[in-house]
Amino acid sequence: MDLGLLEDFLELARELNFSRAAEKRNMTQPAFSRRIRALEEAVETPLISRTTRQVSLTAAGKLFQPRAEAIVRALWDARAEAKEAAGLAQRSLNLAATHALSYTFVPRWLMSVAGPGQVGTLNLVSDTFRQCVRLMESGDATFFICHKGSGEGLALPEKQFAHHPVGCDRLVPFCAPGETGAPLWTLGAGSEDLPLLSYGPASGLHRILETHWAQHGRPRLKSAMSSVLASTNLEMAKAGQGVAFLPSSLAEAEVAKGALVRAGAAEFEVPLQIVIYRSRSRLSPHCEAFWSALTRADAA
Description:
Blueprint: H1 3-15, H2 18-24, H3 29-43, E1 48-50, E2 55-57, H4 59-85, E3 92-98, H5 99-102, H6 105-113, H7 116-119, E4 121-127, H8 129-138, E5 143-149, E6 161-175, E7 194-199, H9 204-216, E8 221-227, H10 230-238, E9 243-247, H11 248-257, E10 261-262, E11 270-279, H12 285-299
Parallel strand pairs: 3-4, 3-5, 7-8, 7-9
Antiparallel strand pairs: 1-2, 5-11, 6-9, 6-10, 6-11
């Protein structure tokens, strides 16, 4: 069976939209549809339920999806091992990270756990939480670094992916200072809802905040703007547009310059872990050595 047919199916299973999946697979929708039908003929059962309103997986498709993921990952692993044995493998790391961590935390952390020789060629993808998860599920990223709130589940299924904590962070409410240097807004200081620079659903920080507030109570805030990027909310907060809950690791430079000040007491902060994920299947020797190095460094 053509490995590409399985990759086509997995892309469609993630997108549940023929047009978007075809675009991501760099082909026309009619050609993509023919390939999905060819796969269904090969496995002798419908995998996709097609209606005028929506696309969904059949019961067989839902069962087939994790098997297809395992087959694709195993073939990629076998290819990497064969190249390694032949001396043709590149010493490279495919690392996905959310925007909020890729700018500040990831470069410093990488150099603390491994030197340039151990990292090799670094292919770093900085994207939204949702897209990074998709890269891991499709096998296009080997490692994924993101924030994790204390009250939420794992970003990826534990049966298929291992995870390891690599740092701590906090979501802190920040805003611009007024003329006197005091914050323009202070959480809990009045009866009015304060303007919130919120996160869109594709951002992992959106899920962390909503989970935390559901458990501990939501401050008096009203969304003034929504973005999937913490860096955008940081700039809008500096411009005096509202209160932004920003990772301390991202905001520390602006706080040191006085461009941002705390907009609330410590009770409004949200504790975070920084976590790295990998597939539980065997990685290339170079990637396995990197994983061993980072776990040893954290243990020390």
